[in-house]
Amino acid sequence: MAIVVNMPRLSDTMEEGTVAAWLKKVGDKIEEGDILAEIETDKATMEFESFNEGTLLHIGVQEGETTKVDELLAIIGDEGEDISGILNGAGASTEEAKEEKADEVVTPSAVESEETQTESAEFPEGVIVVTMPRLSDTMEEGTVATWLKKVGDTVEEGDILAEIETDKATMEFESFQSGTLLEIGLQEGESAKVDALLAIIGPAGTDVSGVASNFSATSAPAKKEEAPKVKAEAPKAAPAKTETKSKAPSPTPVTENGRLYVSPLAKKLAEEKGINLTKVQGSGEKGRIIKRDIENYEPAAGAASVGKFVPSGQEDFDEVPNSQMRKAIAKSLTKSKFSAPHYYLAVEYDMDNAIAFRTQFNSIPDTKISFNDMVVKACALALKQHPQVNSQWFDDKMRLNNHVHIGVAVAVPDGLVVPVVRFANEQNLPQIGAEVKELAGKARNKKLTPDEMSGSTFTVSNLGMFGIDYFTSIINQPNSAILSVGAIVQKPVVKNGEIVVGNTMKLTLACDHRTVDGATGAQFLQTLKGYIENPVTMLV
C-alpha cells in the first residue's frame, strides 16, 4: 500500500522546508533508515530519514523547491503500484492521504513516524496507537517526564501530549492526531523502548480495553515486560521518578498510587538546592509540588544537617533511577574506553603571557573572553596543522577532517553533554566565547538540538575552574583525541636561571593509538604550546 511522505517539522519554529538535495530517485528501493533527502529548515540543513520500506514512486518537491510542513513530499509503495488516485487528490492537501495511513516521520523536534501514531484495521474505527517516538539519533528508550494531558482530555493536532526524557534532553512531544486521550500506557517516571505503547487516542467513549494487549502481543512483546502498561481505569503503582528515603520520618507529601507528583522545574530546583522532595508539601493541583514550594521550603527544626546516619543508627540511603542521559554516557564511554587503545601525553605550559594577554583583551569595551576560549581557539589552529589529530577512526577507514569542529564538554545535573563549536579555526576569540556561552546555557537548560551536539572532530574538557590541576579524559569516539585542561596554578618556576613566581597550566592529551602515534601527538602539543604561551600569534 502506498505511503504518503509529508514535509516534516524538523524544528520547533519550522513552517516550511526546502529540499536541498534528494539522496534517492524515483524507482530506487528504500529501506527503513535510509536517508531520503536533505531538508533545509529555518535553522539548519538536516538529513531526512525514511521510516518505511518500498520503492520511491513519486517526488513531489524538487531540489531547490519549498513547501509547507505536512504538504506532499514523496510517495513510497510497491514497485509498479498505481498512485494516480493519490496524486489527483493531493493537489491542495494531503488530508485524505493521511487518513489512508500517512507517513509521519520521527525527528529531533518530535515529528512522529507512521509507527509512532498509527491507525490499524484491527483496532476500533478511528483509534490511534501512539508509541514512544525516537527524538534523537541515538535514542533507544525514553522516559515520560510529565504528562500534559490526562485520560478523557480532548487532544487537538499540535497539542503537547507529554515531556519525554531522552538520552540527550527533555523534549516536548506533540500530537499529530485529534481525538480523546483514551488510555495512557506509560506513567510519569516510567521508561520504555522506542516504538513501545505510549498512549491511545480516538473517539470519546470508545472501548479500547483490548487494544493495548493486542498491540503488545503482536507488535512489541518484549516491551511489555520492560515497561508495564498501566490502564487509566485501574492504575497500578508506578516507580517514583524522584529520589525517596528508606528511613527517617518525614512529612507525608500528597501522592497517588505511590507516585510523587512534581513539576520538572520544581524537580530541577530541588536537585540544585539539595532538597529531598519527599519532605516537601505540594501546593499545586492534587498536591503537585511546584516551583514556589521549593523556593519557600524550610527544613523542619531539629533536622539533621550533616551525615547520612540518623541518631538511631539506622542505615540510610537515597536511590535515584538512572536517567536516559546517564545510561547513554555509561554506554558510549565504556565502549570508547575498552575499544580505543588510549594513551596520554602530559605537558605544563607557562601562562604568564596568556594572563597578560587576556587582561589587555578584556579591557576592550563589551569584550570578555575566558582562558577556555583561548584554549579552544589555539586547539583549532593547531589541528589545522596536524590533521592526523583531527581524524576519526571507523572500522573500515580513517577520516582526516579538513574542517575543525571542537566539542566543549559541559557538566549538567544529569551528567555531561558536548555541544560543538563549528569551524572554530575560522572564528575569532569573542565569537568563540559567545558561542560557547550560548551552547553551555542551552546544555544546562536541556535545550540543545541533536545538530548542536553532533559532528565534533576533537574535544576539550576543562576542569580548571573547579580547582583540578591535572586529570585525564576518555575519548569522545569516533574522534581520535581529547584535551584535558587543568587549573592555572601559581608556583615557583625557573626563568633565566633564577627562581621566580610563575603561573603554569597542565594539559593532558588522550590519544587513540590506532590513528595518532606518540610523535604525532607530541608535535601537536608543541604547536599548541606556541599559541597558548604566545597568544598574540592567534590574532595574526
Automatic annotation (TrEMBL):
Could you confirm whether the keyword Acyltransferase appears in this record?
A: yes
Reaction catalyzed: N(6)-[(R)-dihydrolipoyl]-L-lysyl-[protein] + acetyl-CoA = N(6)-[(R)-S(8)-acetyldihydrolipoyl]-L-lysyl-[protein] + CoA
Which cofactors, if any, are listed as required?
(R)-lipoate
EC identifiers of the protein: 2.3.1.12
> Cofactor: bound how, per the entry note?
Binds 2 lipoyl cofactors covalently.
Q: What does this protein do?
A: The pyruvate dehydrogenase complex catalyzes the overall conversion of pyruvate to acetyl-CoA and CO(2). It contains multiple copies of three enzymatic components: pyruvate dehydrogenase (E1), dihydrolipoamide acetyltransferase (E2) and lipoamide dehydrogenase (E3).
Q: Which proteins does it associate with, and in what oligomeric form?
A: Forms a 24-polypeptide structural core with octahedral symmetry.
Against InterPro entries, the record matches this protein to:
2-oxoA_DH_lipoyl-BS, 2-oxoacid_DH_actylTfrase, Biotin_lipoyl, CAT-like_dom_sf, E2/Pdx1, E3-bd_dom_sf, LAT1, PSBD
Q: Which PROSITE patterns match?
A: BIOTINYL_LIPOYL, LIPOYL, PSBD
Q: Where is the composition biased (Basic and acidic residues)?
A: 222-234
Pinpoint the Lipoyl-binding domain residues: 2-77, 127-202
Which family, according to the similarity comment? Belongs to the 2-oxoacid dehydrogenase family.
* Residue ranges, annotated region (Disordered): 218-258
Q: Does the keyword Nucleotide-binding apply?
A: no
Which named protein is this?
Answer: Acetyltransferase component of pyruvate dehydrogenase complex
